[in-house]
Write a structure and sequence with these properties.
Layout (H helix, E strand, L loop, with lengths): L1 H23 L7 H12 L1 E2 L5 H5 L1 E12 L5 E3 L2 E2 H9 L5 E14 L2 E11 L8 E11 L4 E10 L13
Parallel strand pairs: 2-8
Antiparallel strand pairs: 1-5, 2-3, 2-4, 5-6, 6-7, 7-8
Length: 168
């Protein structure tokens, strides 16, 4: 009986320790620059990587909204929860991609901010750019760190090239 209790206690302590290590791995978001870097790190890598940090970068009920052309030619915004986005990434398996914000601007009032950023996506950290687009990021400062409320994005296409003013 004592052995069983010790095993349960060890299991609980190990789980708590591992969770604390994972949580500690999420970078600070005390500044908006930190938030941009943390978001790049959280979305980049293999599709099936641990997304604990991605969850921590958003407010509860945060949203991700890709805007893209549907098969019928209409333009549609698809509203995803953070978990929906994570599940879509998991479906990619170990296939990686790396996103990097190459230019961004911010507007801040009080504890809210809007970041307008140009991103590039590559198959490897130093690979050839395969996709570019614009992110519109809404964020809130909770007194200690910035959290994303929503990220809306649209990839560049021949019909919607990125204007020069948004390029580095």
């Amino acid at each position: 009986m004592l052995r069983k209790l010790l095993l349960i206690a060890f299991s609980l302590l190990s789980t708590t320790f591992l969770h604390a290590q994972t949580a500690a791995a999420c970078p600070s978001t005390k500044t908006l620059d930190d938030l941009i870097k943390a978001l790049d790190e959280a979305v980049s890598g293999p599709g099936d990587k641990d997304r604990t940090c991605m969850r921590q970068l958003f407010v509860p009920d945060g949203r991700l909204v890709p805007i893209a052309k549907a098969k019928d030619g209409s333009i549609a915004a698809r509203i995803l929860t953070v978990e929906d986005w994570i599940n879509r990434m998991k479906a990619r398996g170990s296939e990686p991609f790396y996103e990097h914000q190459v230019k961004y601007s911010t507007d801040v009032y009080g504890n809210m901010a809007h970041l307008w950023s140009t991103y590039e996506i590559r198959p490897t950290p130093d690979g050839k750019v395969e996709v570019r687009g614009i992110n519109s990021i809404q964020a809130a400062f909770n007194g200690t760190e910035w959290k994303a409320i929503e990220i809306t994005w649209q990839a560049e296409t021949a019909d919607t090239p990125i204007p020069q003013k948004y390029l580095p």
